[in-house]
Every structure is written in C-alpha cells, then in structure tokens.
C-alpha cells in the first residue's frame, strides 16, 4: 500500500480512496510517505476538526471549506475520514470537481478513508482506489515482538510461530487485542504468557462477527465412511503446501467441487480435508455476502477473499453453493453475477495456498445459470458423491455406532437392508434405534436398527427422479468419489 500511495502522489493524482478497517495503520503509512516526501499531512475529522503532522490543530469541521482552503496550498496530503455523508452533498461534489485542476497543479493529494466507501457516479471517475491489505506474517511477527517484550518470560520461537499462525487473517488492531487478551486470561493462572489457543478462540469470534466468515474447528478423528477415490485424491495433495513440493515444481492446488446426493458426505469431507492438510478451515457463507447497499456485496466478497489469502495456508469451504447460484441465467440478479465474477476470477488466477472446497446438491441450476463456474480451470477436479455402497454403509454404521452409542455388533443384515440410504439417513437410523433401546431399557442391538429401517423412507425413493437426474448430469463430467462396487446377486432380506 505504501508504494501505491507514493506512486499516486508522484504521478499527481488529486483524489485517492482507501477502503480499510485499519484507519490508524493507513494514517501511519501516509505519515511515513509524507516524511520521506517532505510534505505536510492534514487529517480532517467531523468530530475533532483538523490535525496536522506538525502537531497543529484547527477547529475546522466543514468538509466543503476544508477542500476549498487546502486544494491550492503547497504540496500536501489531506486525509478525510468517513467521507460518505459528504459525498451525498451536491455542494461538496461540485467543489471537488471545480478544485481538481488546482489540486493537480499544486501537487496536492486528497485521501478518502472509510471501511466502506460509497462514491457517487458523477465523481467516481475522478477518484483512484488503492487496495488496503491485511497485515502479513512479517508485520504480525513485529507486533508479536512488541507485545511480548513486556513479558517476564519471553516466548520461544515455536510459541511465536504458533501465535502468528493463529493471528493471520486479523487486522493489526484485532491482532493486538487478541494478543493482549491471551495474556490477561493466562494471568489468572499466575503465569502471564501468549496463548495460541486463546488467540484462535478470539479470532473465531472476530471473524464470526463479520457474518459471512467463520473459522471452524472440526472434531478429531475420521467421520467419513468410504469415498476412497476422493480421499485418495486428497491424500496425494497433502504435500501441496510443503516447501519441498514447491521446489519440485508442484503447483498449489486450487480446490475441488463436490456434487451429489444430499447427506452423503460432502460437508463431512470439507471438514476432513483441513485435518488431512493440517491447516485451518474457514467457512464462507455466500448468502451473507449479499448486502442491501449498492456495491456492498462486491466489497464483501473482496474482503472475504483477502481474509482467506491472509490466512493461507488454509481450506476455504463454500457450502451449498447451488442455493445461492441457481436460477434462470437471464434473470439472475446483476449483483449476484458481479459477486460470482469476482469469485471466479480469483479462483482462476489465485496463487495463494488457499484450497477451496465447494459443495452443491442442485448442480443443474448452476450449470444453467453459471456454466462458467464449472470450467476445468476453476477447479482441479469435480467429484460426484453418490449414495454409499454396501462396503461404505458398513463403515458408516460402525462409525455412528461408536460415535452415538459406543457399541459395535454385526450389521450385515442392516447393511443389505439399507441399500439406497444416504449416510445421513443411516446416522438417523442409529439414533432412532438408540431411542428404541432406551425405551425398552435394553442395550442397543441390530433388531433396534432394523426396526428403525422399517420405519424410514429413504430419499432414493422419495426423490428418485432428482437423484437420477444428478447421476445423468455427472456422467462424463465428474470423477466418482467412491470406488465402483461389484454387483452381487441380491437376496431378499426379511426385516
């Protein structure tokens, strides 16, 4: 950002905008630029008036007067904080237009700073935008050192590394707050220190407050039955973030799109991949990206992408993509199309270690409205997750019997009786069987499971046409997530 400000200033740009939640950091950066360029800086705030880099203050709170007074002065940098209300004033916009030539001639730079700028169309072409990024590892490391300096017992390099990992993705102010909070919390135990776990907890709360992103801590262990092809593909990419892989020339993978029958393990896989990669999992809620104000949605998706890249290496999970993108292509809302265009451009061009996992049920809707979303260059691979095979159903039964009831018994009859059932339906059957066992005051056994099966109508019956349509669409387009099951002669099961 510092270099961009210097370039705009030297090139004689009169008006610049910077969208940021790190107001103080941006002002400090501008002060550094002004010191090197020997220029005075004035900061205009509606609440405090004008303060300068020379320590002077002025009780000037009229934005129009501020522009008129300083647009033709000696070379300077003039910062206006929270200017959105000023932009709504016709007089303010008129003064800006009238003052442009004087600004260029005098070498003055006016900088508009706000977390979200809403620049009117009639002056938008006059204002050059500068991107503001979240702090990188080096900046976070410097902040860590400054705060750790006050501790009696200095953290080790390993403790610093883990703390920095936890802080990546936060603003400078939020990172400083998280560090300070971790020290305060540890003081209760009589041993002030910087605790990475406390930092990660605060980071989760901070990102969740945005509404459209949150850090998820998956349960330990493996909760997926089957999907050998998909799991094998992921396992081969486990080395993707290692330095040796980069030296070998392996490109950083973009991510995968998981398509298929609801309740068959797409979301579970998205939660398992970060455990396999040993990186954080960040969930992006596409529905919450969309705001009511013009331009707000596009800014939200850019901010979400910037946060994900700042947290890299990580897995970015976009769940149920179809719910947000389905619809008629010609009638898709223009805001939606612009947001998706931002996301698609990033997916194709990104070089950061952000592995994207998107899941979708109604893929036909996406295929119709946004066919560009399904191009090979967007994803490393697309997988189809079908109803589980007999081998997979057996694994699923054992996983849920241990998870829910901490028991294990032969389930061969139940496996054959649940052909056409999803993994989620099998889990529900185990839970229902547990209720039946509790009602009878007995230990859970297969008869309880079989009774639950008899009282369940699987979606393979209730949504047969929809599932068949999914399979037909996926044929020739997607890799199968599961190994092909050899067909066995069916025998009638009396349940």
In CATH, the topology of the largest domain is named Rossmann fold
| Rg measurement, Å | 28 Å
Which CATH architecture of the largest domain?
Answer: 3-Layer(aba) Sandwich
Strand content: 5-15%
- The chain-level structural class is alpha/beta
What is the CATH C-level name of the largest domain? Answer: Alpha Beta
What characteristic shape results from the CA principal axes? elongated
User: CATH-wise, what's the superfamily of the largest domain?
Assistant: P-loop containing nucleotide triphosphate hydrolases
**Tally of DSSP helical segments:** 24
Q: Please state the average pLDDT score.
A: 85
Structural commentary:
With 495 residues, the chain is an alpha/beta fold. It has four domains: 2-130, P-loop containing nucleotide triphosphate hydrolases (Rossmann fold); 137-209, Helicase, Ruva Protein, domain 3 (Orthogonal Bundle), CATH 1.10.8; 228-385, Rossmann fold, CATH 3.40.50; 390-462, Helicase, Ruva Protein, domain 3 (Orthogonal Bundle), CATH 1.10.8. Helix content is 50%, strand content 13%. It has helices spanning 2-10, 23-37, 63-70, 84-87, 90-106, 121-124, 137-148, 157-167, 172-187, 196-208, 228-236, 243-248, 266-277, 286-289, 296-311, 321-325, 334-349, 363-369, 390-405, 412-417, 423-440, 446-454, 459-462, 464-474, and strands at residues 15-19, 40-45, 49-52, 57-58, 76-81, 109-114, 128-130, 213-216, 255-260, 281-284, 314-318, 354-360, 381-385, 479-480. A seven-stranded mixed beta sheet has the order 4-3-2-5-6-1-7, with helices on both faces. A seven-stranded mixed beta sheet has the order 8-10-11-12-9-13-14. The chain is elongated.
């Amino acid at each position: 950002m510092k270099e961009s400000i210097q370039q705009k200033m030297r090139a004689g740009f009169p008006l610049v905008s910077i969208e940021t939640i790190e107001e103080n950091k941006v002002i400090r950066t501008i002060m550094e630029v002004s010191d090197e360029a020997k220029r005075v800086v004035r900061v205009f705030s509606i609440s405090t008036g004008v303060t300068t880099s020379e320590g002077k203050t002025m009780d000037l709170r009229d934005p129009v007067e501020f522009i008129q007074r300083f647009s033709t002065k000696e070379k300077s940098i003039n910062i206006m904080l929270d200017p959105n209300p000023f932009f709504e004033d016709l007089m303010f916009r008129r003064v800006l237009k009238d003052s442009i030539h004087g600004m260029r001639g005098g070498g003055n730079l006016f900088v508009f700073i706000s977390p979200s700028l809403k620049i009117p169309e009639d002056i938008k072409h006059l204002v050059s935008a500068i991107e503001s990024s979240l702090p990188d590892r080096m900046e976070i490391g410097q902040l860590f050192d400054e705060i750790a300096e006050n501790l009696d017992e200095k953290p080790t390099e390993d403790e610093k590394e883990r703390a920095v990992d936890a802080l990546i993705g936060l603003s400078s102010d939020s990172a400083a707050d998280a560090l300070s909070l971790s020290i305060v919390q540890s003081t209760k135990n009589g041993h002030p220190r910087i605790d990475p776990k406390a930092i990660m907890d605060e980071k989760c709360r901070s990102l969740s407050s945005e509404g459209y992103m949150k850090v998820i801590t998956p349960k330990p262990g493996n909760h997926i039955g089957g999907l050998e092809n998909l799991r094998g593909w992921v396992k081969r990419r486990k080395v993707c973030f290692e330095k040796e892989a980069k030296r070998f020339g392996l490109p950083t993978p973009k991510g995968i799109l998981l398509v298929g029958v609801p309740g068959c393990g797409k979301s579970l896989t998205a939660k398992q991949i970060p455990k396999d990669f040993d990186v954080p999992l960040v969930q992006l809620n596409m529905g919450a990206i969309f705001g009511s104000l013009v331009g707000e949605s596009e800014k939200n998706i850019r901010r979400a992408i910037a946060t994900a890249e700042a947290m890299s290496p990580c897995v970015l999970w976009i769940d149920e993509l179809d719910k947000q993108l389905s619809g008629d292509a010609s009638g898709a809302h223009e805001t939606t199309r612009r947001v998706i265009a931002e996301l698609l451009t990033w997916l194709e061009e990104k070089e950061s270690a952000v592995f994207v996992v998107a899941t979708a049920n109604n893929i036909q809707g996406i295929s119709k409205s946004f066919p560009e979303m399904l191009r090979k260059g967007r994803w490393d691979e697309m997988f189809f997750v079908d109803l589980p095979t007999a081998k997979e159903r057996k694994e699923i039964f054992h996983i849920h019997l241990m998870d829910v009831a901490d028991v294990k018994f032969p389930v061969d009859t139940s496996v054959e009786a649940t052909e056409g059932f999803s993994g989620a339906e099998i889990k529900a059957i185990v839970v229902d069987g547990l209720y039946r066992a509790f009602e009878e005051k007995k230990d859970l056994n297969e008869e309880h499971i079989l009774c639950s099966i008899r009282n369940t109508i699987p979606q393979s019956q209730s949504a047969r046409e929809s599932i068949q349509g999914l399979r037909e669409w996926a044929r020739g387009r997607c890799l199968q997530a599961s190994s092909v099951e050899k067909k066995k002669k069916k025998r009638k099961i009396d349940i």
